[in-house]
Structures are given as structure tokens and as C-alpha cells.
Amino acid sequence: MYNSSITFRASIDACSLVLCFFCLSAAHASAPEIEMGISEYSKTDQEHASKIISKKSKEESVSTTDHSKLEALKGPFFSGPEVTKVCLECHNTAGHQFMKNKHWTWDYKHPKTGQHLGKSVLINNFCTNARGNEGMCAQCHAGYNMTDSNFDFTNQENMDCLICHESTGTYYKTPTTAGNEACSIMFAGKPAIEWEKIAQSVQMPSRNNCGKCHFYGGGGDNVKHGDLSSVLFDPPKEVDVHMSEQGEGFTCVTCHVGEAHEWAGSRYEMTVNDTVGIGKPGMPRETASCESCHSASPHPTDSVTGIKLNSHTSKVACETCHIPEIARGGVATEVDWDWRTMGKLKNGEGFKLKEYTQGDGHHRATYKSIKGNFTYAENLQPMYAWFDGTMNYTTIKTQFDPSKGPIDINSFSGSAADPGSRIYPFKKMHTTQPYDKGNNTLVYMSLWGNDDSALWGNYDFGKAIAAGMKRNGIPYSGDWGYVETLSYWPVNHMVAPKEGAMECSQCHTKDGRLSHLDDGSIYLPGTQNNKMLNIIGLLAIFGTLAGVLGHGALRVVATRMRKK
Amino acid sequence: MSVNVIKLVVFKRFERVWHWSQMALIFTLLFSGSAVYGVNSLMGFADAVALHTWAAIILIVLWLFATFWLLTTGQWKHYMPTTKHFFEVARYYAYGIFKGEHHPYKKTFGRKHNPLQAMTYLLVKTIIFPAIWLSGIPYLLISFGMGGFLNDFGVGNIALIHTAAAIAVVVFVIAHVYLLTTGHSFVEHVKPMITGYDDVELTDEELAYIKADEPNLLKDN
Q1: Tens of pLDDT along A407-422?
Q2: Helix H segments across A434-530?
Q3: ipTM of this model?
Q4: Residue of A nearest to B38 (CA)
Q5: Which residues from chain A sit within 8 angstroms of residue B36, using beta carbons?
Q6: Where are the domains of chain B?
Q7: Residue of A295, A309, A311, A517 to mutate, interface with B, max B Cβ within 10 Å
Q8: Chain A residues with beta carbon closer than 8 angstroms to that of B93
Q9: Closest-approach residue (CA) in chain A for B48
Q10: What angle do CA A374, A376, A381 make, to 5 degrees?
């Protein structure tokens, strides 16, 4: 369910009716809502999609080609690869270009750390691993027929052009393999794909294309990032000044620019200190940083405040002040996931318990039989730390010491002394998840499959881990336990309008947001941080006051005594 | 040689304007500065920073004028340290004041401050205020993005010096105001700084010179 977004209808009509009943009556209800079954996404992106299509931003549809007029796209088509084949006839370098793209390769070699990363190998602390569960997770692979880890990455015809370029909002993908029979009801009742209509609708990617996967990362709306949610399909200005129609009306690719099917922006290696900044007119902006449009001196210099704010940019990332809270606009993010409670059933059937009502009135599952317990947060204050842009990952190969507290799934470097580092906001995710107790490593689990090992349907960690490790040739001690993990998600989206930026005093005060970084490595005014100076100052001032008052009192006493 | 006590302009118009505008600026700076430091929450941080910066810039300009004035008019001589009457004045504050004695010092044409007072002002002018602007100007430069060369010294150290100097200013202000209550009376001390006139002991020669060459210094000329 990694980054998945597809529509899953509730199994039977009666169930949908029950859902609707709760939607209507329970915007503020606190009674726990129980939904039988283990289907995901009964609330889908489809309705959001139609909303956005109707108010297409003017940045889209500026192509010199009207694809609906092309003979070659008249079809008929019966599958995705047939459409791709036609696309590549004209766009004959697109396949070669896209073959290097992470959305296709799910593979990334970090240029600084040398680590082998990417969705095809990484383990996170949400659904854990996509590897071995491609049957489900590859719904968000920009390709067709990735059923397992042996996908043919050289076959261009398996590229999915439509998932990024179609603009009808009716395109969808289903899991590439069936999965356990308990899950199969999730695909029932979907309308047939109108391949010709969808193929003719292609254009530059809209937020709907990107959002269908990226807003649902981690297994649901805003679960993973906190700053990427379905709210961004049509955000109010106070949530996102760039993407709001009342603001700039940007799509994702307005900032994530690029060419040749490679575009700016990566959280594996981030640009936290854009030394290039704004280019001259016509120059490509090849980073998705704030500075690439706003420069490193973005505040107006006609006031002391503006000048002073500009002097912050060498230490503080723009995001730190301008994204004061994450998970804004009514959609919550997950902050804690406890896998230990996975597998509770009602009458032998999996279920969901929806005890969290988020800002927009929707109920979110606080328990799922297939996943365990969740804790949500909205309007959450980020965590702040020095960050130089480089992420280090705990991979399947990394051995750790579980007695040393929570394991960092990803850790990052950066310090006050490093001129390339900035104080950066993060969403911190805490999870309790299975690990290999004998080898002290993370584990690959078999989550999805039509066999007796797949966790989703069999609810047995031991079998799921053994099968997941064996399938990928990873040594497994046979003994598993639970380990606490943390992951850190850099916050970049949901930039508030300037009125919504942080106030100076949220950091420049005693016990402010950055007080944990006020360790002598930086000077942070307003914190009264120099205790020695405070004591000397108090002694000097009150000592002088006492001195003059004492002197004055003596004079009064002496005068009275003389008069007697 | 007889002694004449004459009402005379001791604080020129510029000096009075300087003194009172400096006072207003110092109080503004102490108020806004303590808000920046975090010990008063009566004004917002951003407003405090802006007010502090503007008041500081005005005070720097004022100091430039005052320094020029002191050097070109010869008024700097009033602040030169002297031992003459020093111990009498010190003894007065420590002992004589309680016995009801009169202040032993009288203003003269060349010394409008008593020796303790002159030494204090000299210390303020040569140590406390320079510490303020030797730290405050670098701090401003850093704020204006021109302080890269100060990175090794560190803005924290700059701020430390600045805050310590500000504490010294507070101590000076307390003592300064208190000392106005000694001697004749509070009003007697403050009035000359408003009107400019005070009683000055003049020798015959000084009086003759003033009458001849600077009659506008005399109140009843």
C-alpha cells in the first residue's frame, strides 16, 4: 500500500450506506465507528480529481499539440502498454529519458553517502517495504505489470505515460496481483477504463496526477509527509499560498521543474542551501528550492524588519518560518504507528476502528486489523534541526543496537558550524515495528500475496517475515521482535501566506521553538540564555539600587538625628 | 583676589539638546533592548528590534555631533581627570553629607563638574559608550549582511559585550539620578540643564574677560 491511491469501493452497498450515514450525522461525533473488512481508501481521490479538472489551472494546456485530434490516439486501445507504444512513436526519446527516472527505476544511488536507496529496496516505518509486495505497491509505479522484484526495467512499453499525463481524472490502476482473498473485494465495482478518451487527454502533469500517489503516501491521505495531503488538490490560500487558486494557482511542476523527464526536488539529497538562487530571465531553474524564485534575500529591504529577516537566511531555512504548522487544512497526518496490535479480528474478519475525526469531518482509522494502531496529529508544530540536505538510511543491511533506544530509519547530518546547513523543519514519525531479533536488522515482510504467508489475510508476523526475507535472499535468524523506529520527513509544502508566517517571538523567547538549538552554537536573542550575565546584571543593578537607597536612607536618618 | 558668584551659561544650547535627546534615546534603547533580550514583554520582538535599531542610528549621529562639538569648542577640558578637590568631594559623599555639611565643590569657569562627576562622565564617554557602539555597530553590520568578517569573533560575544555595557548604563543612570538629590536640591541640579544657567565662581579676571568678550554668557547682561 506504499504510496497507493487507487479507489477501493467498500465491499457491499450496505456498507457504503452505513458509511454515508456516519458522514452525514457524525461530523463531530465521538462514538467509535467500526467498519468491517480490510479495504483501503473508501474515501478516494476520484472526487477531488473531478473538482480540480473543472477548474484547470491556466498553466496547463499550453501545448502546441491537441492530442485529441491525433489519428494515432483514436485507438482502439485495450491496455496501457498499447497506448504507451503509440506515445513513443512520436516521443521517441521519452522512453530513454524516463528509463533513468526514479518513478520508473525505484532505485537511487546516493552521490554522497554511496547508499543504495529507492523504493525497491528501502524499509520505512509506515507499511515498511514495497520490495516483495509489488503486487500492491506498484499501483504507484509509473509502469505496467510490476508484479514482483524481477521487473524488466528495459522494456519501454511497460512505462505508464498516463498516470502522470492524463487529465480526465478517471484513470486508475489496480494491484498487479490478486493478493489474499480477503483483500480481493477491494477491486470490485470499478468502472472500465476508457483508454481512448484518457490517451487523448494527455498534457503536462497536473497536481491531480502527482497527488494521486504523493498525497496518499504511507497508506492514506497525508499519512506520510504531513505537508502533502489531498487538501492540496484545492487548498485555501492560508494552507498553501502557491497552490491555492486564490494565491498563485501553481501545480506541482511549477516548482518541480526540469527537462528530459528529470525534475528538481529529492528528499534523498536535498538542496537546503541553494547557492545558485534566482537565474536571469529565461535561465532554467533546476532546483525546487524557495531561493530559486525568491533569492536568498527575499524580504523587502525598506524596513529594519525586512533587512533583519534577510540576515536569517544564512542560518534558517525559509520553510522554518513560513510553514509554521504541518497537516493544515483539515487532513491529519500520522505521527505514531504501532504494529504490535496487528491482527485483531471480529468474527474471524478484519476491521477498522475509526476513532479520530479530523478537521474536515472525516473519520480516520485509529486501528486497522492489517496494520495496528495509529495516532494522528493536525496543525502540528514541526521538529527543528540543523540539516545539510544529506540523508542516511537504515537499510536492510544495517545492523543496529536495539537497546540504544529508537532506531533512526533515516538520519541526517548538519550543524551550526557548517555554513551549508540550515535550521530545517521536519515531521517526526514514531513507529513500533518488527525486526530481526537475532541479526539486529530491519526485516522485509510479505504483506501482499495469495498464499499463507502474506500478512494481509493471514495476520502472522512470523510467517510474513520469514517469507519476505527468503523471497529476497536476506539472512534471517528466525527470531523476530518489536523495535521502536523514528523517521524524519523534511517539510517543504503548505507554505503559508506571509501573514501566516511565524512571529519572531515564537523563537525569540524563553522556551521558544528553537530553544533546544540554543546551546551556544548560535546566538538567539530573546532567550535570556546567558545565565552568568543575568546574575551579574541583577547584582549590578540591584546592588546599585540598594546602595543609593541605603545612602539616601542614612541621609534621612542623619538629618532627623541632627534636628533632635 | 576676590571671588564673584555669578549666574552664567554653563550648558550651551547644543549641550542641553544633546543631553536631553540622549536621555530620551537611552531610555528608548534600554526599554527596547530589554525587550529584545527578553526581560520585558511590553512590546513585540519585531517592534523592539526596529525601535532599537532606529534609536541606535539616531544616537550614533548625535554622538558624532557631540564629539565634534566637544573637540572643537574646547569643552572636552571639563572632563579631564584632576585630583584637585577630589578627596574633599569623596569625603563629602561618604561622610559630610550625613553631618549636614554643604557640598564642598563650587563650579568654576574652567570646571563645571566636580572632580568625581568629571571622572565618572569620562569613564562613561571612554569606556561604557564605546563598548556600546563597538559592539552595537558590528551587530548592526551583521544584521545588514555586512558582518561576515566578524564570524570568527561571534555574534554571541558581540551581544555579550553589548548587554554588559547596557547593564553598566543602567547602573550609571541610577547613580546619576540619585546624585541629583544630593547637595542643594533635585531642582537646583536639573534646572541648569534646562535653562543653561548656574552659579559659577569667577575670579575678577574671568569676570572682566566675560564682560568684555562673551557678555552673552551672563544672565543679566
Answers
A1: 999 999 999 999 999 9
A2: 455-458, 461-471
A3: 0.88
A4: A526
A5: 508, 525-526
A6: 3-217
A7: A311
A8: 551
A9: A305
A10: 140
